Amino acid sequence: MSTSLFDLPDPDEPDREETPAPSRGRGRAPLAVRMRPRTLDEVVGQKHLLRPGSPLRVLAGTDAGPAGPNSIILWGPPGTGKTTLAHVIARGHGTTFVELSAITAGVKDVRRVMDEALTDRDLHGRTTVLFLDEIHRFTKAQQDALLPGVENGWVVLVAATTENPSFSVISPLLSRSLMLTLQPLERSDIADLLDRAVTDRRGLNGEVTLAEDAKNHLLDMAGGDARKALTSLDAAAGVAFSHQTTESDREPDPEPDPREAGPVTITLDHAEEALNRAAVRYDKQGDQHYDVISAFIKSIRGSDVDAAMHYLARMIEAGEDPRFIARRLIISASEDIGMADPTALQTAVAAAQAVQLIGMPEGRIPLAQAVTHLATSPKSNASYTAINEAIADVRAGKAGPVPKHLRDGHYKGAAALGHGDNYLYAHDQPNAVASQQYPPDELVGRDYYRPTPYGHEKQLSHRVNILRDMVRGAGD
């Protein structure tokens, strides 16, 4: 069904989730569902949205304040807590929670919810919290159907989207909504969540311990997604339990109840088997981080596209920040390629912007395209060398007065000082090139940029020589 309508438990009644899950049993809800926070204080991350007196706290009834907004749009990557926040908001007194998915719901479903919400409000005094997942998939007509309920306060709309609402949500709904941006969870946030899930009665109830290397592997694979981290932990625990059972079956003598044998340790092998992914030996704060990125850039510089692609894959699989990779590609495009292929910088910048827009794992595709472009481009460090030599001269004190004819002559009194006198406007000269002195006296004739004979610079080299002769008055 496209909609499920149910009343949340009365907060004054005992919470059924407080009962520990059956020990190592089957048939229970997934770990990510069992560990869903019940209050805003249990939510990890998103501290910028959960400060005292914030709209979310007021809406959830945690803090006193003016009436909360009638509509909230939660925008953020998967696994950052959009659904969690909606459920927490809906746990207040006298609320009915309705969940719709934009993938399956139609206009009729939306209108039915609005009618039921109006009835609940007028006859029973209950507020309906409507959680609409993936609102960006709703058509304009479907979003229009939400407007009467939102505008008249029949429902409190909590909409979630992974795409920028400015482009995917209609303007009338945006103007009636408070848009909150959720940030990717920090590694430390997800680490805390895993630790809590291991010990919490709703989670694994202390029946396992998590080895540090296994924990790091789960964190690497999570990529900032809390749901993925908990699902992976659940799977790794299942592997650990199954291995223990298999080993106990091999024993000739009866073994005691596993529950009395103490907690099972989830090892790196268990985590790798559960995820079907080998752990990448990569310390993002240590030698591996610097060694791999160094090999990555040197492979691009050396035009080995295959090696560069290997190191890119290695960083991606280890959970390296894709923005860091993109920044290094931008630097490489200018430092190692430069004017030998001026389009390399455009590709690198476009890849960095693409990663910001679409995130991971899809971000690996534009990153790979940029690596291919840069590694196969002709190479030149002429621009890089030119700026370094120019800076060295400035630091050595070679920074004499700007020639008078180049100085600003627009302010009062400049003309009396001779500023701008005899300046030749390049566009009025033949070939739009003016023969006059541009650098300070001590740097006349100093060449910083020396084009290479590779790629575009092969043609550029001839042009630079002609321009220098014309500017310096040595040729036509």
Q: What topology emerges from the helices and strands here?
A:
Layout: E1 3-7, H1 31-34, H2 55-59, E2 71-75, H3 82-89, E3 95-101, H4 107-124, E4 127-133, H5 140-144, H6 147-151, E5 155-161, H7 165-168, H8 171-175, E6 178-181, H9 187-199, E7 208-210, H10 212-222, H11 226-250, E8 264-266, H12 268-275, H13 287-301, H14 305-317, H15 322-337, H16 343-358, H17 364-376, H18 382-395, H19 456-471
Parallel strand pairs: 2-5, 2-6, 3-4, 4-5, 7-8
Antiparallel strand pairs: 1-3
Can you walk through the features of this model?
The protein is α/β, with parallel strands linked by helices and 476 residues long. The protein folds into four domains: 36-181, P-loop containing nucleotide triphosphate hydrolases (Rossmann fold, 3-Layer(aba) Sandwich); 187-275, Helicase, Ruva Protein, domain 3, CATH 1.10.8; 287-376, Zinc Finger, Delta Prime, domain 3 (Up-down Bundle); 403-471, post-AAA+ oligomerization domain-like. It is 45% helix and 9% strand. It is built from 19 helices and eight strands. The chain has helices at 31-34, 55-59, 82-89, 107-124, 140-144, 147-151, 165-168, 171-175, 187-199, 212-222, 226-250, 268-275, 287-301, 305-317, 322-337, 343-358, 364-376, 382-395, 456-471, and strands at residues 3-7, 71-75, 95-101, 127-133, 155-161, 178-181, 208-210, 264-266. Helix 4 (107-124) links the parallel strand 3 and strand 4 (127-133). Helix 10 runs parallel beside helix 12 and helix 15 (322-337) packs antiparallel against helix 16. The longest helix is centred in the middle third of the chain and has 25 residues, at 226-250. The chain is extended and about 90 Å long.
